[in-house]
Design goal:
The protein has 172 residues and is α+β, with helices and mostly antiparallel strands. The chain folds into two domains: 43 residues; 114 residues, Rieske Iron-sulfur Protein. Helix content is 24%, strand content 35%. The strands form three sheets. The chain has a four-stranded antiparallel β-sheet, with no helix packed on it. A three-stranded antiparallel β-sheet has the order 1-10-9, with no helix packed on it. It is elongated and about 100 Å long. Bound molecules: FE2/S2 (inorganic) cluster. The site of FE2/S2 (inorganic) cluster has 12 residues, from loops.
């Protein structure tokens, strides 16, 4: 009789363990999709958006005399919408073509500035130098200046928070 009571007790314990396990599996199965919905914005790439730089007819600049213009991209990051301030360097070539460069040095990303007397963009961090066409003319930068994706529509210039040759294909 004592043996039968022991058997029924261990059977009860076994059943409790099984029920506990099944409950845990159901709990985890229900939680994973909810967590996915809640956390997915954190792992998403930054949105790529357009912003207006200004009127094209207002870009009355002399050839090879760069003009720095600030732009503000409103992008969704995670659960919030942030404003990202960036700089566009507009350069008009001798032939009248317009180029829209980033002011980010292509070495380690420091902001460059234009030195008219030397006709060069200089990077204060490690001495990188670029000419007005964005080509490297000195220092460690491994490649020319990045160019913003842009379009001109109805006399307005629009810039995208993406470089033309951005290998990561994500918002900047
Ligand atoms: S960051 Fe510009 S030269 Fe290094």
């Amino acid at each position: 009789m004592a043996k039968s009571s022991e058997e029924s007790s261990s059977r009860r314990t076994f059943m409790m363990v099984i029920i506990g396990l099944i409950s845990s599996i159901i709990g985890v199965a229900l939680t994973i999709p909810v967590l996915g919905v809640v956390l997915s914005p954190l792992f998403r790439k930054r949105d790529i958006v357009w912003t207006k730089l200004g009127k094209f007819s207002d870009l009355e600049i002399k050839p090879l005399a760069p003009k720095f213009i600030p732009v503000y991209f409103k992008v969704k990051e995670g659960w919030s919408v942030n404003t990202l301030p960036r700089q566009v360097i507009v350069v008009k070539t001798i032939g009248g073509k317009f180029l829209f460069f980033s002011n980010q040095c292509t070495h380690l990303g420091c902001p460059i500035h234009w030195v008219p007397a030397r006709q060069k963009f200089l990077c204060p961090c490690h001495g990188g130098m670029f000419n007005a066409l964005g080509e490297v003319v000195g220092g460690p930068p491994p490649r020319p200046l990045y160019k913003w994706v842009h379009k001109i529509e109805n006399d307005a210039v629009y810039i995208q928070n993406k470089f033309i040759d951005n290998p990561k294909d994500r918002g900047i």
